[in-house]
Automatic annotation (TrEMBL):
Highest taxon, organism lineage: Bacteria
Protein name per its UniProtKB record: Abortive infection C-terminus
Residues of the Abortive infection protein-like C-terminal domain: 162-238
Pfam family, one: Abi_C
Species whose genome carries this gene: Halomonas caseinilytica
């Protein structure tokens, strides 16, 4: 099946689900045709929303979507579920995605590039997981930088992310206290705050820790912010390391 054909059916299915979720109708025949087209393509099977796979008719989808009390919540949920599939079919990504991806591909660590890809893939469908992978990405790059600069095979595993970044930034001459110019001190201090914030965000809402009685549920936009910041910091550290080589 061609990409345009699948894109048409994906958009049609998303629109029908939004219509049904917000008080409108969806024809059984059209719903079934779009669903069948999406499920028959092995290339996109992993990106098709689970609700498309499990809800065989508009009435079954109606029972599924009722867990969300407001129309706004229902629309946001449907959009977030379809975003990975539509992005794939449209080959859409943030402008920074490809640039950061290229930098990480040059980096001599398969784990780092894998972490970036997982973070990208999970931004919309699994915000908590994307935030966890964003933190893991920066952590892996910091460990690699420290190991390379100190001539070790690997960095010590006992440090948390802020400690790792402090070590890496000092070794790369990126620590605020290593510069006299106020502008550079503020920018580099901001970089340090971003890394610390990523670690705190992961601990607060990421899936690597159990959550308390009032869990915070991140949305795709929160995950996208975390992933983009992590990718920017990782590529900056890599570029600085390469410049010193």
């Amino acid at each position: 099946m061609g990409t345009e054909f699948l894109l048409e059916h994906a958009e049609s299915m998303q629109n029908m689900m939004i219509a049904r979720a917000t008080g409108g109708d969806a024809a059984n025949y059209d719903y079934g045709q779009a669903r069948a087209a999406l499920l028959q393509s092995s290339d996109i099977a992993h990106l098709v929303p689970r609700m498309v796979k499990t809800c065989r008719s508009p009435s079954q989808f109606w029972a599924h979507i009722n867990r969300y009390p407001t129309y706004a919540e229902r629309r946001e949920y449907i959009w977030s579920e379809f975003r990975p599939l539509l992005d794939k079919l449209e080959q859409v990504g943030a402008p920074s995605d490809s640039a950061i991806g290229e930098a990480l591909e040059r980096f001599d660590s398969a784990h780092v590039h894998a972490a970036w890809q997982k973070a990208l893939d999970r931004r919309a469908s699994d915000p908590e997981g994307a935030i966890t992978m964003a933190k893991s990405l920066v952590e892996s790059v910091c460990k690699y930088v420290v190991a390379q600069m100190e001539g070790k095979e690997r960095a010590d595993n006992g440090d948390d992310l802020p400690q790792l970044y402090r070590k890496a930034s000092h070794l790369l001459n990126l620590a605020p206290d290593q510069h006299m110019e106020d502008t550079f001190k503020r920018i580099l201090g901001g970089c340090s705050n971003i890394v610390t914030g990523l670690g705190e965000l992961r601990n607060r809402v990421g899936d690597a820790h159990g959550q308390g009685p009032r869990p915070v549920k991140p949305s795709p936009r929160h995950a996208e912010l975390a992933v983009n910041l992590a990718g920017t910091m990782a590529s900056f550290l890599i570029a600085t390391l390469e410049a010193r080589s």
